[in-house]
Structures are given as structure tokens and as C-alpha cells.
Amino acid sequence: MILLLLLLFFSFINLATSSELCFDSHCTGDYQTIRFPFRIVNGQPKSCGYPGFDLSCHPTGEPLLHLPHSGDFIVQNIDYMHQEIRINDPDYCLPKKILYLNLSGSPFVKKNSQTVAFFNCSSNYIPYWYNDPIYCLSSHSHTVYASSSPMLINMFESNCAMIKTVSVPSSFSYSSNLWEYLLLKWENPDCGRCESVGQRCEVKSNSSNEIQCTDSQGRSRVGANVVSIAMGVVAAVICFLGVLCCLCFKINFRRRGSSSSIAHWTVSSQRTRTMGLNGATIESYPKFVLDESLSLPKPNNNVCPICLAQYQPKEIVKSIPNCQHCFHECCIDEWLRLKASCPVCRKSPIEAPPSNPS
Ligand SMILES: *[C@@H]1O[C@H](CO)[C@@H](O)[C@H](O)[C@H]1NC(C)=O
Ligand SMILES: *[C@@H]1O[C@H](CO)[C@@H](O)[C@H](O)[C@H]1NC(C)=O
Ligand SMILES: *[C@@H]1O[C@H](CO)[C@@H](O)[C@H](O)[C@H]1NC(C)=O
């Protein structure tokens, strides 16, 4: 009987308070956790986010960030502790977004350390050194190249018109660097210090910009106190009334309460999934060595969509089973470790169960 009453109190409290709390969220089809300072517009109340950090959900199910002067970006990863965000272009032309990036009016700044120069060359001009054209910026009469090598920049300068130099992060290793992601960081709100000690962050209740750390449940300490006081009061009241309550009324209430807490558990247990595929799955995908005819399972223009380099005989190419799109093995492996989807069609490959370590 007492147990029954206790259950009743807890489920009642849960129902009464959950609407005001900011729970972690995510877009369907993506496991990136979205929490303060980010929030999903139309999904979480305004107080759950910080101005400039509003996200929406792209039709593909990934979070979308809108920058006032640079348009929409797919959010690949948010590092709450280091206050960094990795974004990409939903229209698959990240170099174009990087070339024309204007972050004014947004809380973000670039994490830069390497200079890349963009050149606009006549299509008649073919550089005799190895350099990949940026097809999505080029036209039939002009071809756009980008390079970070001072030597190549020098050679391009004497043959082409420089469009612009831009700074990009230097954590990249090969020529796909302008295609992988754009790394931005934010200074304000400074929630990294809360995140680094396992806490969450929120706006102080009556101020628009000041923030404070909260416990990891996403519920402020003040909030928690209010809840426990409320719990005490409600418990006392229901103790008196509970004895008089009829049994069927209680059972009805308990059902509603427990189904709602099961819903919360399901949401929170999904949060911790990593984004990429495991090594065994990536290793299991079909790969083959290109012959002289460069024949691929699917007709294409013989360019690896990730690094944009022409395939060469004897290179190892890997295809994704359910869509058959092909890539250099080293390119797609790197991608799949970060993202469990085909970079061309964004279909999610099926994940094999992790192999048993034995
Ligand atoms: C960014 O865009 C704003 C508004 O169009 C403009 O005023 C500003 O000069 C731009 N900044 C740069 C660096 O182009
Ligand atoms: C390259 O130059 C041509 C001719 O001046 C121009 O029409 C084209 O828009 C330029 N492309 C870029 C990406 O700047
Ligand atoms: C909190 O904000 C409300 C509405 O903006 C205002 O009426 C109230 O005076 C504020 N209270 C404090 C303590 O600042």
C-alpha cells in the first residue's frame, strides 16, 4: 500500500515537472546529442538554448545550423567540452562555403592555422603538377583550384587569377581537406568548464545571457530543491488523501506515470551511440584493386568523390554494400569512422555486429 503511494508520488512529480526541463535531444537519423547552448527549434523551448545556437533538423535527419550570412550547414559533430563544432555543406560543395564564409552575426569563429589560396584558371590551362580541380566551383570555361602549398600558389599566381586566400584548420592530411568538414569554435557561452566536470550548462533563470553549471540530469540545483520541496508537500497531502482514495483510481494513475518514465529511459539510453562504424564493419566492405580499364561496379567519372583524385590502376577501391558507391579505401575508411553514411547518397550502410574479441 505504502509502496503504491510512493510510486504514485514519483510518477505524479515526473509528469508535473518534465515539461519545464531541458532534456538532451537529437534529430531522427542522427545520434549527435543536442543540448545547451544548442537547441532544436520547434523541439525544445527557447530557454533550453542560447541565442545564435538554434538548430533545425534537415530532411535527411541530421542537425542543421543556419549562419546569418553563409546559409545552412549540416552539423557533423559538436564537442561541448572544447566548444567546437564540425560542419559540412548540405549541397556537397564545402570548398564553396569555405571560400565565401562570413561568420559575422554568429557566435562562431574559425579555428584556423593554414592558408589556402583559391585560383580561377581558364579551362585551357592544365597545371602540370598534381592538383585536383574543385568541380563544383568550376564552369565549362573556368576551372577553380585551391592549394596551401606556397610553391604551388606561386605557380598558380603566374597563370591564373587569385580569387581569395582563406584560413582553414591544419589538422588535415590529404587533398580532401577542403571537403571533410569545417571546424568552428565558440567562446561564449563558456560552458566547457561545466562540461569538463561532468555537469551541464543553462541560462540563469532570470537573466538572458548569464550561464551557470547544473548537475548532469539537466536540472538546476535550485530546480532540484524546488522539486524536493514540492515532492514533500505533495507527499504529505497525498498521504492524507491516499488512504481515502479508491483503488481503481490509483491503478489508473500508476499506469500513466510508469509509461512516461519508460519513454524517458528509452530516450536517454540512445544518447551514447557513437557516430561512425566500427572497424570490423568497415573492414568487411568489398574492396578490389583497380585494373587498367578502371572498371567500377557503378558507372561514374572515375573520380573518388571524397578526395576528387582520378582513380589510377592498382589503387584499392572500396564500395559500400547497399548503394555500391566507390571510393579510395583510405578515403572511405576515414569517413566511415566518423560517419555511418555514404558520403554521396547519405544512405546508412548496415552495421555488422562487432566481432567477438577471443
Ligand atoms: C559579412 O556580411 C555582412 C552583411 O552582409 C557585411 O556587412 C560584412 O562586411 C561581411 N563581412 C565580410 C568579412 O565580408
Ligand atoms: C572565374 O572567372 C570567370 C571569368 O572572369 C568568372 O565568370 C567566374 O565567375 C569566375 N569563377 C569564380 C568561382 O570566381
Ligand atoms: C524576473 O523577470 C521577470 C520578467 O522578465 C520580472 O518581472 C522580474 O522582476 C524579474 N525578477 C528578478 C528578481 O529579476
Automatic annotation (TrEMBL):
<dbReference type="InterPro" id="IPR013083">
    <property type="entry name" value="Znf_RING/FYVE/PHD"/>
</dbReference>
<keyword id="KW-0812">Transmembrane</keyword>
<keyword id="KW-0732">Signal</keyword>
<dbReference type="InterPro" id="IPR001841">
    <property type="entry name" value="Znf_RING"/>
</dbReference>
<dbReference type="GO" id="GO:0008270">
    <property type="term" value="F:zinc ion binding"/>
</dbReference>
<protein>
    <recommendedName>
        <fullName>RING-type E3 ubiquitin transferase</fullName>
        <ecNumber>2.3.2.27</ecNumber>
    </recommendedName>
</protein>
<keyword id="KW-0479">Metal-binding</keyword>
<dbReference type="GO" id="GO:0061630">
    <property type="term" value="F:ubiquitin protein ligase activity"/>
</dbReference>
<comment type="similarity">
    <text>Belongs to the RING-type zinc finger family. ATL subfamily.</text>
</comment>
<dbReference type="InterPro" id="IPR025287">
    <property type="entry name" value="WAK_GUB"/>
</dbReference>
<keyword id="KW-0472">Membrane</keyword>
<dbReference type="GO" id="GO:0030247">
    <property type="term" value="F:polysaccharide binding"/>
</dbReference>
<keyword id="KW-1133">Transmembrane helix</keyword>
<dbReference type="InterPro" id="IPR046948">
    <property type="entry name" value="ATL20-22-like"/>
</dbReference>
<keyword id="KW-0808">Transferase</keyword>
<keyword id="KW-0863">Zinc-finger</keyword>
<comment type="pathway">
    <text>Protein modification; protein ubiquitination.</text>
</comment>
<feature type="transmembrane region" description="Helical">
    <location>
        <begin position="226"/>
        <end position="249"/>
    </location>
</feature>
<feature type="signal peptide">
    <location>
        <begin position="1"/>
        <end position="18"/>
    </location>
</feature>
<keyword id="KW-0862">Zinc</keyword>
<dbReference type="Pfam" id="PF13639">
    <property type="entry name" value="zf-RING_2"/>
</dbReference>
<keyword id="KW-0833">Ubl conjugation pathway</keyword>
<dbReference type="Pfam" id="PF13947">
    <property type="entry name" value="GUB_WAK_bind"/>
</dbReference>
<dbReference type="GO" id="GO:0016020">
    <property type="term" value="C:membrane"/>
</dbReference>
<feature type="domain" description="RING-type">
    <location>
        <begin position="304"/>
        <end position="346"/>
    </location>
</feature>
